[in-house]
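Sorry to interrupt, but I need a hand with the structure work. Leave the record below and I will have a look:
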Amino acid sequence: MVQAVDMNIQVVDLYNQYLKIKPEVDERFQQIFQSSTYINGPFVKQFCSNLANYLKVKHVLPCANGTDALTAALMALDMRPGDEVITVPFTFVATAEAISLLGLKPVFVDVDPDTFNIDANKIEAAITSKTKCILPVHLYGQAADMHQIMQIAEAYDLYVIEDNAQAIGAQYCSNGTKGSVGTLGHIGCTSFYPSKNLGAYGDAGAMFTNDDELAERLTAILNHGQAKKKYYSEFIGLNSRLDSFQAAILGIKLQYLDDYIAARRHAADFYDVALATNGFSQIPVRSPQSSHVFHQYTIKVQGNRDELRNQLSKNGVPSMVYYPQPLHMHIAYRYLGYKQGDFPVTEYLAKQVISLPMHTELTTEQLTYICERYLHAVKKVQ
């Protein structure tokens, strides 16, 4: 058994990741200070160009955070208050928040019990005459069924905005639909929150599109609605920018993104083998349609999830629950009229999922200890 001596296991280890790129970060920060180009400087333009090449998408539009990305994407589609946007109740609140802030109506569809993503087979039943958009969330690091989603969108003349805050770098391939996750719909949105697979050292976000007109409109929206001339707003916009410091960091990390993904997959493979036969929990199901970049390593437990977490914590193994309350049960969304039992898969997952430490700096010794302590905790709570 591995001893817990100076193990220092963290859910996310950003500091040790930073130490590996510290010289590059320090050098770029000094360049920014010397040039004093803090907004829309060369590092912003360079990062956007390099990310567009990496994703093989025509346009990358940077902004201040992932919530702004979702908000601006919805604004660009020129929807009206009361229009409906189909999404999931099993996600971070920002997904529904952006919809609600614009006076649009979130319409929830339950998720698949294995992939945790929107159940594409249930989307059509939720479409009404007011539906204008489908907003799938690529949860934990792998894609929703984008082939079926895009087929439905085309049949009903709907837009698709991808919430890709957790799956940047993942690839999708199914029935002729293929490409980087986040570039398959009309607009893709991502967050560069520090804990993301491609994370800044503060808030940051971006949108992706292959549509020139949407790109032009999004650019204006992010700059107060100023489309052609400074100080002349053609429509209501936002003030949402990616600053040079965050762009510099992201530009460095983008060079290592594939290595970061490989490290996460290595950790996930280790967990898979060690925990596959414990009989108490189900390891993540990897969709054949999508590669998995493991923003989270999330498993379903069959018993007392909270006591399991307590036992892990006692032994120096942190864990998280993403997400403990379905969106339709939040006080803020009671106005939608949903009730307990409306989305049984989501409600079950909210009570039974647990995410183990997942980041680029996990060592074999740490992974061994986590798995040993997990199996020990399972025996305690069974």
In short: The mean pLDDT is 96. The chain has two domains: 21-255, 257-381. The two ends are 21 Å apart (CA to CA). Residues 88 and 108 are 5 Å apart (CA to CA).
